[in-house]
Amino acid sequence: MWLNMVLKVTAIVQKDDDWYVAKCLENSVASQGKSVEEAISNLKEALELYYEDAPFDIVEPRQTFVTTLEVTV
Q1: Can you give the pTM of this predicted structure?
Q2: CA-derived radius of gyration, the chain
Q3: For residues 13 and 40, is the Cβ–Cβ distance under 8 A?
Q4: Residue 43: how many CB atoms within 10 A of its CB?
């Protein structure tokens, strides 16, 4: 029996030259696109493939905190 489950993950998108790179913070899966929307769409597809055959206990969500820091350089 197949279970369809919705998993919420945290992603960041950064511009790198002419590309946007999207990365999932929970598992480091990444993808890219020519626009933010394309990068996110490609990341979603990559995550679906990543979790396709994952054992159920691996898919358990982890609590993630995101913040900004000021660093003197």
Answers
A1: 0.80
A2: 14
A3: yes
A4: 25
